[in-house]
Each structure stands twice: as C-alpha cells, then as structure tokens.
From TrEMBL:
N-acetyltransferase domain boundaries: 3-147
PANTHER family reported for this sequence: DIAMINE N-ACETYLTRANSFERASE, GH14572P-RELATED
Keywords linked to the UniProt accession: Acyltransferase, Coiled coil, Transferase
CDD domains, per database record: NAT_SF
Top-level lineage group: Bacteria
Matches recorded under SUPFAM superfamilies: Acyl-CoA N-acyltransferases (Nat)
Coiled coil regions in record: 16-43
Entry annotated with the keyword Coiled coil: yes
InterPro entries: Acyl_CoA_acyltransferase (IPR016181), Diverse_Substrate_AcTransf (IPR051016), GNAT_dom (IPR000182)
Protein name: GNAT superfamily N-acetyltransferase
Upper classification of the organism: Bacteria, Pseudomonadati, Bacteroidota, Cytophagia, Cytophagales
Keyword Transferase set for record: yes
Length: 147
C-alpha cells in the first residue's frame, strides 16, 4: 500500500466532508454537524482554513485541517482543527504522516507553535500525541458560543 500526502484543493472538499461526518459518527455527535460542502467551499475560498490529505490508490483516506491564529503572548500559531483517518485505514501510520506534515507547515510558515484539542476518552489519540512530547493543559477551560 502506497500512501502519499499533499496540500488539499477545492476539488477535495466533498471527500474531506465525508471524513468529517465519519469523525462525527465516531465521536457520537453526527447530529451536531451543521457544516456542509457549500459552506466549506465558501470558507476555503475565503482562506479561512487549509488542509492536507492522505491518499492511497488516488482515494482520500485522511485529512489534517488547520488554520492560523494569533497569540498576544507568542505570536503566530497554527491550530489543527482535526486530524482524521478513515476507520478502515487507522493503524497504518497515516495519522503520523498527516501530523508531521502539519508540524512542518507550522514551522515553514513561521509559527511559534501548534495547538489542537483531543477528547479525554480517545486514549489512542492521547497516546499518539504523548509520543511527540505534547503538553496537555488541565488548567484552561474550553469555551464557545454558538450562533
């Protein structure tokens, strides 16, 4: 099996949205997905996010979606919104390939670091991130407003 990664394109959005829905099913939250291909296309055109895809046999099997944010203390930071590997392909090192590509993008674009979230019950993901020397924050509380 040959796996390749590349920067995503607008033509990939329908396929990556299928991965987004698959992740939502995995996280038991499909009913919370209000995004769609049209919104993702519009937002991509407005340069609100970027992404890498992993492919095998010309089929998208993984995704790392990210955007830039700014810290008043640290400057430019890359925020990885999601890293998704289709269930059938998990355990083949695809997540590592996507994560490494995202880390490289943060470094080559002058970021001072990278941030993301992981669900506390997702022990395989927590273990994966520990291998990188990730700092897990127990002090900050996630907050959000939905409109």
């Amino acid at each position: 099996m040959t796996i390749s990664t590349r920067q995503g394109t607008i033509e990939d959005i329908p396929a990556i949205f299928e991965l987004v829905k698959e992740l939502a099913v995995y996280e038991r939250a499909l009913n919370q997905v209000t995004n769609n291909v049209e919104k993702m296309t519009r937002d991509y055109n407005e340069k609100l996010y970027n992404f890498f895809v992993a492919e095998s046999d010309s089929k998208i099997i993984g995704l790392s979606l990210y955007y830039f944010r700014y810290s008043t203390w640290r400057g430019k930071r890359l925020y990885m919104e999601d890293i998704i590997v289709t269930e059938a392909m998990r355990g083949n090192g695809i997540g590592k390939i996507l994560f490494d590509a995202t880390v490289a993008a943060a470094k080559t674009t002058g970021c001072t670091g990278m941030l993301w979230q992981v669900l506390d019950w997702n022990t395989s993901a927590v273990g994966f991130y520990r291998k990188y020397g990730t700092n897990f924050d127990n002090e900050w509380i996630n907050c959000s407003l939905d409109f």
